Amino acid sequence: MQKKIRLGILISGRGSNMQSIINACHNSDFPATTACVISNNPDALGLISAQKANIETFVVKKRPLDTNKIEEILIKHKVDLICLAGFMSIIDNNFLKNWHLKVINIHPSLLPSFKGLNAQKQAFDAGVKIAGCTVHYVYPEVDSGPIIIQAAVPVSTTDNVESLSAKILNMEHICYPQAIRLIALNKIQINNNVVQSTEKLFFMYH
Fold it and tell me: Fold match between 1-100 and 106-205?
């Protein structure tokens, strides 16, 4: 059996995407395990969830973000892939250079549309008929980097920002573990900043 890759998950809040990853890791056939959870917020509810799952947790300074400490923790825990899961700090270029193509993020829009904060509200206010989420590699530019997986979420006439956000979050919990699985199994290639795979890279809300 292939050796499981080790994940370091970075959070700032409740960690619902973190929990979806932890749940996936509990499946014996999932090719990854959660090595540690790091937060820039000592009050993040996700820390409690991680501790209940017997995962080591750490809190680092937020302003300025202590990337040296983060890197020290990741190296100590032999982390192969860093998963940003609602991590509300910008990571500096040197860190990303050291961990090139080893940091992924999930964003609640169909990138490259609606980058930055409140993406669901941006999409709703723009009147789009299809919203969604994106798992992507993290590059220095905010919400950039090669797109790994996307999911489309139709916007109904009865939706508001809250209901649309809930639908998108539902798909985030499907897409993030799937992206990790493909990376762990070496099922994706990157050519000219475009991710390619023989596996499914697009989902529809259901």
Answer: yes
